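Reopening this ticket.

The earlier resolution said the output was attached, but the attachment link was broken on my side. Pasting everything inline this time so it's all in one place.
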Amino acid sequence: MKYCHNCGVELPESVKFCNKCGTAQILDAPETPETVTPSVTPAQSPQAPANLAPKTHPKAPTIIIALIAAFVIVGGGIFVITAAASCDYGFVSCMNSPVSGGSYCYAHTCGYSNCTRFSNGSYCYSHECGESGCNSEIKGDGSYCREHSCKADGCYRRKSDPADYCNDHLSIAPERPSIVGTWTLYEVNPVGLADDTLVFYADGTGYSMGYGLKVDFVWEIINNDTLVVNEFVYTNLIVTQTELYYLGSWLGTEYVYRRE
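Inline output:
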């Protein structure tokens, strides 16, 4: 038996490294024939000092184990992140986590209650108002939002502009103010201001007065939202107690009149 040069633990003769501290062990030199080295006796056989013996850092196994553990942890972390960032939005690389029970993240999921379908706006196609350019939530089980739906209870059909009710419920809609009376032009878009006054009579006649020129006309309202004056057709008609609004056929000009 022999002892470790570094820590002193008892070791078998044949081992080259200490089982405890990992220090390399220097085997005893074999006996040298006297004819070769007559001045050196076995008792005087040279040995390297313990403090000069080559050493392997005792913490090397620990460092290796720590590196392996770190690799496993980091690899696992990458796997977890990749699994969580699985939003299925395919047009860009979305790294957000999907909502519970869905395939898309919060930003790409329909905002309608309990709907997990894809949305690139606020709602999916099934829950977005069917009116062109409107991105609002639908009303009930209908296809239009509250603004564009009939105001009758339980009716989800599109309202008839400019009324707040669909064609089937126009009979219960509040009566619209009459267009009969005198109206002074207040605003024209995008042309600008102009001098014009409109006078509507109950018998379907009237006249316009602008820049000192009077023009007689006959008028009628069609489908509750179209004003026909002589051969000119004006759409999106809205009549209130104080204002008259419609769109002209030329460049979609907006006309706003105030009641006198």
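Reporter confirms the inline version is readable. Residues 74-83 have pLDDT under 50 and may be disordered. The first helix runs from residue 60 to 84.
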